[in-house]
Amino acid sequence: MKFSNEELIQKVPAHDLRAVARLITLSENRSARAREVQSKLFEKTGRAHIIGVTGSPGAGKSTLVDQLASNYIKLGKKVGIVAVDPTSPFTGGAVLGDRVRMSNAAELDGVFIRSMATRGALGGLSRATSDAIQIMDAAGFDVVIVETVGVGQAEVDIVRTADTCFVVLVPGMGDGVQAIKAGILEIADVFVINKADREGADALHKDIRVLLGLGDHDQEAWMPPIVKTVATKAEGIGELIEAGNSHREWLTTSGRGAERRLMMMKEHIIKTAHDILGEKIILDHGKELEKSAKDCIERKVDPFSVAQKLLD
Amino acid sequence: MKFSNEELIQKVPAHDLRAVARLITLSENRSARAREVQSKLFEKTGRAHIIGVTGSPGAGKSTLVDQLASNYIKLGKKVGIVAVDPTSPFTGGAVLGDRVRMSNAAELDGVFIRSMATRGALGGLSRATSDAIQIMDAAGFDVVIVETVGVGQAEVDIVRTADTCFVVLVPGMGDGVQAIKAGILEIADVFVINKADREGADALHKDIRVLLGLGDHDQEAWMPPIVKTVATKAEGIGELIEAGNSHREWLTTSGRGAERRLMMMKEHIIKTAHDILGEKIILDHGKELEKSAKDCIERKVDPFSVAQKLLD
């Protein structure tokens, strides 16, 4: 299916899912067209509730996200899912993961799933993901769920750009400790204890409460609720959705949502500037970069001076 | 201990560890002084063997790295360790992790350990880590071991800048699959099966061989060896060091080392340019950024146009 720029600008906000898919692909491929269309569509964004879901591997995030999607649909919402999957190009794992996922949520009308695999170094994954979120937002999805597979710094950075972050833990996996290690504790707006029918759910609940008590909390701060779910049995999903809604309401009434969006927008602008600059260097100054890098390796010059010169 | 720039430029290459520690701290704090000193010291770099160590949480990486360090010292090498620990500022986990580590390797003469915690968003961790490696390299360390705690994209990006990457797996944790998921398979130059006295070590060995067989390998490519270790009993460490040395030799003889260093240097230059640009925007155009971000939130303008304008 081919779309002209004008068609994309018209069809994406009209929730034409083929146009949405096409624009995300164009944007992933860093097409200049995509940028033009996205700039035009930007005014349509800012309406969706962006929910980030992260947690340790094996915590059941995919199942939970599928259940969330089904429930939002029952509530009459349009739901998009961005699955961030920094999977090896070597083994083609992303494709498999995608197929496995599609068998669940994609059967339902109104769920649109997009997997983002690693796009090389230099923050490509984070940019591609935020583009996909923005496009879905412009397309009129009420809820966009961003789910990460990894648990590292890049994944945390992606999820913290969401309005509301669900951190998913499971009992009996030393998860309390792992969550701290991965630095995901302070980004949690809602804690989810999934597989809560397993032994150790109450102990984990207690651990989280203790950890939350350690933080510096002023009176006006949001205190993350802890929701128990059994995603495979669809238990606790309604409560989780309510917790997410409460958080969104708090963002608005407390004014913290505006602060958060301003901070994220500043970061987004700087990242976009990085991106433009990186492309400009590679496209317009590729030969100079190559030569300078060789000079650096021979220690004739240092990288900081080269970078400074390229910027000038 | 205070050092002037001149003292740092003199004492770091003379392996004065207090000067090394000081310069790394200055560099972490993004001091302009650090940059000047590092530019001067850059010509002293490029001699150390940079070894990256990554793998799932609980794989015993810290113990393995401590054992590696002890063994390199017995071989008369100077060893530095950079522990990349994206730990929560909320719980202060980094400090604890550091203390636990120090009890082992730091007792030995000649091991210098530095923990790098998360330095905010926008790739700060990656930059701080590569600065620390460069400073240790300039200080005459023969081997610099970079160990990551997380298993996400940022950690993978950091480790792949090393000359030689050790990927540590353990039997019976579904690690084969986790390694693929985290995208660390294709960065492995040496596979380490740690805790190899556990059940499942042979099965894991077989799994890795099968996965390696799936890749596209030309005749001249490096075939990653698989080394079994029991770090807690100091078993297999000598073999692992030999595998690392073989890989380094191959990098030189095959010419792949030069290619790899060129690619990494180009990325490093672009990242440095990003960094300079980001600081420039925040320092010199902070107010404009703030105003533009607000305009973006009100959808009066789009972030791409703002970024483009800031660049001009």
Verbal overview:
The first copy, chain A, is an alpha/beta fold. Chain A has three domains: 40 residues, no CATH class; 210 residues, Rossmann fold (3-Layer(aba) Sandwich), CATH 3.40.50.300; 42 residues, no CATH class. In chain A, 54% of the residues lie in helices and 13% in strands. Chain A contains 13 helices and seven strands. Chain A has a seven-stranded parallel sheet with strand order 3-2-4-1-5-6-7, with helices on both faces. In chain A, strand 5, helix 8 and strand 6 form a beta-alpha-beta unit. In chain A, helix 1 runs parallel beside helix 3 and helix 4 crosses helix 10. The longest helix of chain A has 29 residues. Chain A is globular, with a radius of gyration of 21 Å. The relative contact order of chain A is 0.12. The interface between A and B is large, with 81 and 81 residues.
Summarize the structure.
The first copy, chain A, is an alpha/beta fold and 312 residues long.
Give the key terms.
homodimer, alpha/beta, seven-stranded parallel beta sheet, 54% helix, 3 domains, 312 residues, Rossmann fold
Shape of chain A: globular
Radius of gyration of chain A: 21 Å
Spatial order of the strands forming the largest sheet of chain A = 3-2-4-1-5-6-7
Query: How many structural domains of chain A?
Result: 3
Q: Give the helix level of chain A as a range of percent.
A: 40-55%
Mean pLDDT value of chain A: 82
Give the CATH superfamily of the largest domain in chain A.
Answer: P-loop containing nucleotide triphosphate hydrolases
State the separation between the terminal residues of chain A, measured CA to CA: 42 Å
Coarse structural class of chain A? alpha/beta
For this structure, what is the CATH class of the largest domain in chain A? Alpha Beta
Please outline the major beta sheet of chain A. Answer: 7 strands, parallel
Named at the architecture level, the CATH assignment of the largest domain in chain A is 3-Layer(aba) Sandwich
Greatest chain-chain interface? A-B, 81 and 81 residues
State which percent range the strand residues of chain A make up. Answer: 5-15%
CATH T-level topology of the largest domain in chain A: Rossmann fold
Care to count the β-strands of chain A? 7
**What ranges of chain A have pLDDT less than 50 throughout 5 or more consecutive residues?**
87-105
Indicate the multimeric state.
homodimer
The helix tally of chain A amounts to 13
- One letter per element, helices H and strands E, the order of chain A comes to HHHEHEHEHEHEHEHEHHHH
